[in-house]
Amino acid sequence: MTSPDALRKAFTEMFGAAPRIFRAPGRVNLIGGHLDYNEGWVLPIAIDRSCFVAAKVRNDSCLRVHSVQMQETFECRLDGPRPRRHHWSNYVRGVAWALREAGQPIAGGDLLISNDVPMGAGLSSSAALEVSTAFALLRLSAREMDRVQLARICQRAENEYVGMRCGIMDQLVACCGRRAHALLIDCRTLEIKPVPFDESSVAVVVANTMVKHALAASSEYNRRRTECDDAVARIRVLRSEVKTLRDVSWPEIEQLVSTWPENIRRRARHVTTEMLRVHAAAAALRKGNFVELGRLISEAHVSLDNDYEVSSVELNLMVALAKQIPGLFGARMTGAGFGGCTVNLVEVNDAAKFAGKLAKSYEEQTRIQPDVYVCRASDGVEEIT
Ligand code: GLA
Fold first, then answer.
1. Which of 8, 60, 246, 339 could be stapled to 39 by a disulfide with Cβ–Cβ 3.0 to 4.6 Å?
2. What does DSSP assign to residue 375?
3. Distance, CA of 9 to chain centre
4. Is the pTM here over 0.90, yes or no?
């Protein structure tokens, strides 16, 4: 885990001056899988694992960036050409590009990055990197920006510079997370309603399968988006007012879809039924009805597995094993899928034991040692003073 003091010291040794320190969190999504790019609702929490950026302004337009995890340094000019290959530095260059595109006259900087959000685990390490970097670059140039706009800029960097067609959820949570709250986000209007998350009754346990089917993840993610667009195009033949799957309910289209290809039918069923689950889940969370919230979370997993087809053998195993352990309210995969983490809603007094048992039984079955831990809901991006 990154200690801000150790990071400050390392920066001073590397760049010869004291830095300012910024952090942005990763996230887990309790429910609302693959709804953000369908303009639906999602219910994530920002977690207490963050990407830290130690930074100091430069008086030229260069970026000099070192990553602790990658053990690599790169340098570029803010107005330099776009790299042709995929590289971790593209997230950093991408936000610098997108900030400038948005008319923010940012200066160059020296940056030391240490990301505690595990990469490729479905906990949004990329959004944490983008948002912490963008926020640091803005603050170094004494610029302020609305947090929702900052999220949009970071999403644009990922869509257009990195080339991943992600939705807005991850960047919004990294910007707007709230301690001890989940966020009910309307991904059409980007309105955010914080919902109190009672950490004295219930805990979120994240379980990393340690398996990521990375190739499937990016190509299949983009394919799901195309399949949803396909469903919308079919509906629009009859109902031109429909813009996204947000605008229809399953009973309204159930008749219509009977002639559609099986995969498109299933995708539409997941998206339209998941929308209802998110609203029911937010209501259950508000009432402190964790049995109901857990039931909806588990139902969402089945829908993501059967209808959206983004789960994996390891994720299904992790969910099945969790269901055998006392204290569980509900479990599902989180993030884009094809590996990574599950999110488990657990009775708070059972949480530590639950985590230990889940890790043990997953390791017995797979011989893979998973990372299983209790998360706290935390704040969005900030400067650490
Ligand atoms: C990834 C994307 C998000 C969202 C989720 C699935 O994390 O970055 O925009 O689509 O997958 O819910």
1. 246
2. E
3. 30
4. yes
